[in-house]
Amino acid sequence: MNTNKLTMLMCSVGLAVAGGCVSSQVLAHDAMGSDKMGSDKMMDHQMMHQEHMMAEMDNNHDGMISAAEHAAYGKMMFDKMDANHDGMVSKDEMMAAHKMMHDKMMSKEDAHDMKEAQEDHMKDMKHQQDEKIEDKKKMDDEMMEEKK
User: Which of 30, 32, 141, 142 is the S-S candidate for 36 at Cβ 3.0 to 4.6 Å?
Assistant: First the structure.
């Protein structure tokens, strides 16, 4: 197989894997229903995925992906999927790779959700503390007025 055909094949595999990740997200979204993952959250998730993909492929950090960078990423993805290292990816290997990437992305999403939940909790605690301080100030002011 000549180099151009091999490069095109590896690029296709890389795109298929990336597409599989996005479609896995869409399927997960459909399965979970809009009440669990709203469209804004889905867009945030897709943006995070796109930024991650860009960072993964852009080896020279120039903000663009060359054909060589894309081909290298495709080869890396192919090598990851080729579990038995026979130079070919079976349906089972591809499905296993997609599941692994999906699980990894979902664990990152869970971690992101946990961080958001912690931040929301801290904001709520601060708000409650601020309300208590404000209430105490009002009580102090009222006591001062009564003394006058």
Answer: 32
pLDDT tens-place string over residues 80-101: 889 999 999 999 999 998 888 8
Which residues of the chain have a pLDDT value below 50?
18-37
Contact 53, 117 (CB under 8 A): no
**Chain centroid to CA 86: how far?**
31
pLDDT at position 62: 92
Q: Alpha-carbon distance 137 to 35, whole Å?
A: 41
Q: Could you give the CA distance from residue 101 to residue 27 in angstroms, rounded to a whole number?
A: 14
The first and second tokens of residue 138, run together, are: 């009002």
Whole-angstrom distance, CA of residue 39 vs CA of residue 78:
31
Distance of CA 42 to the CA centre of its chain: 10
